[in-house]
Structures are given as structure tokens and as C-alpha cells.
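Handoff note, outgoing to incoming analyst
You'll be picking up this chain. Sequence as last confirmed:
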Amino acid sequence: MADPKSLNVSVVAADHEVWSGQARQVVARTTIGQIGILAGHEPVLGILASGEVRVTLLDGEVITANAEDGFLSVQNDTVTIVAGSATLVS
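Most recent structure output, in case you need it:
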């Protein structure tokens, strides 16, 4: 059973899935500024700006990806980040 305070996160590039799993928090850069997402966040759709996407896992580990040209969607504790190009940094 999923942790009620967790997010289901997918980071996807145009040609492959970069990372997916459960997380506590996602921080990404959009064209209007940085956004932090926790469980229970209101639905949102944003245009990504080039930069880091940081995903904090349930155990506190942080996964970082560089993403460019795409969008992020948040709905029902599901965060989907779709980028034209994205690479896992750590």
C-alpha cells in the first residue's frame, strides 16, 4: 500500500523514462519560477524551464535530473514531468 504522504512521480524524456517511483517531494523550475510539490498539492500544469528537477525519496535520498523543454502535471498525488530531453544526474 502506498504511503498516504507520498507522491507517484514519473520523469520522462521524449524517448525514454528517466526515473519513476514514490517520493515525498518534487522541486522543479518552471517558466514562472520554482515550484515545490508535496502530497495533497492542488492540480497544476506548468511549462518547464531548463534546469534541475529534484525528487526527494521516502528515505530522504535526493534524485536529480536535468530537464529541458517540457511540462509538469500534478493531479491526485501523481506528478508527471515530460521533457524534450532529460538526463539523470544523481
